Amino acid sequence: MIARVQGLFARQEAWLCVVANRWGRRSAVRGYFSAISRLGDGGFWYALMGLIILERGLFAARWSEGFLASAHMAGTGAVALVVYLLLKRHTHRSRPYADDARITALVPVLDEFSFPSGHTLHAVAFTIVAVAHYPLLAIALVPFTLSVAASRVVLGVHYPSDVLAATFVGGVIGTLSVWVGPGTMWLG
User: Which of 108, 119, 127, 128 could bridge 141 with an S-S bond, Cβ 3.0-4.6 Å?
Assistant: First the structure.
């Protein structure tokens, strides 16, 4: 019975990958998700950390607050990276395009393994920490993070379950970081 359910899940997941990847071959869709994917490589998050420091320093005369929030994000990112690398090392799930000839990788990948989605894991963790410091950032960060997560499937480099697992792991890391971290709205 368990094997039958797993097989059904795998077929449905593969079907979702094929449909999303075909949609992603459209020029505008590929362009959008490729750009989101590149930003999700880290550039967006580094720029956000720098902007937080500048905004707090220049407009609120609170340089230390900006540095604290950015350092909190960077520390969370470092923990997320270690967890991500440990998971990658111990789970060797191949990528969708390697398993199904109907799926094309629409962006270059860093390695051959799919589980978990590092882009998604980091985006979720960073978003939780940034929004804990500055709740209004949710207006921009939640849609961006959702786009990062979707991009991984649309671009053919991750299964939906890779993205869901990364969302969970990133959520746990981000939440724990806010809970134990410095100067967040919940810690006063």
Answer: 127
